[in-house]
Amino acid sequence: MTRCRDFTAVALRDWGWLPATTPEGRERAEDVLLMVSEVVTNACLHAAGPEELVLRHADGRLRLEVADGSPDPPRPHAPRSPALPGGHGLMVLDRLAGAWGSAPKANGALGKIVWVEVTRPSRPPWRSD
């Protein structure tokens, strides 16, 4: 999981999301790193680990995809106390992601891809990047 977060942090720096110049930007970047952790952790817990992490960036939108070998789509747990550990990953995605979901791998390959989309926070008007 650490390598996936580190890889994502490097990509966010390359794409200008980090270092963030506003509190909203810093929060959004931290949200992205948390969502990577959640999706990768779910692949570890429910699918024998992630097979691939793909990040795509275009037009102020980030899409992250985690492929694993399980064909079973993510399923939320029954509601439970937030004070209890574990079982809150999909709730985190619901709250932080612009959209998320899963799809079977292409070409009949066994497994799925869990994807998450996040929009970049607004840039201050004086920034040109």
Molecular structure report:
With 129 residues, this protein is of the alpha+beta class. The chain has a single domain, classed as Heat Shock Protein 90, CATH 3.30.565.10. Helix content is 35%, strand content 24%. It contains three helices and four strands. It has helices at 2-14, 23-46, 89-96; strands at residues 50-58, 61-68, 99-104, 112-119. A four-stranded antiparallel β-sheet has the order 1-2-4-3, covered by helices on one side. Helix 1 (2-14) packs antiparallel against helix 2 (23-46). The chain is globular, with a radius of gyration of 15 Å.
Fill in the keyword field for this structure.
single chain; 129 residues; alpha+beta; Heat Shock Protein 90; four-stranded antiparallel β-sheet; 3 helices; 4 strands; 35% helix; 24% strand
What is the topology?
Elements (H helix, E strand, L loop, with lengths): L1 H13 L8 H24 L3 E9 L2 E8 L20 H8 L2 E6 L7 E8 L10
Antiparallel strand pairs: 1-2, 2-4, 3-4
Q: What would a concise description of this structure say?
A:
The chain is α+β, with helices and mostly antiparallel strands and 129 residues long. The chain is 35% helix and 24% strand.
Rg (C-alpha, Å): 15 Å
Instruction: Tell me the CATH topology.
Output: Heat Shock Protein 90
Q: How many separate domains make up the residues?
A: 1
Dominant shape: globular
The level of helicity is 25-40%
- Poorly predicted regions are none
CATH class: Alpha Beta
Oligomer: single chain
How many beta-strand elements? 4
Content of β-strand: 15-25%
Provide the CATH architecture: 2-Layer Sandwich
Question: What's the story with the biggest beta sheet?
Answer: 4 strands, antiparallel
Mean pLDDT over all positions:
89
What is the element string, with H for helices and E for strands?
A: HHEEHEE
Q: Which structural category fits the helices and strands?
A: alpha+beta
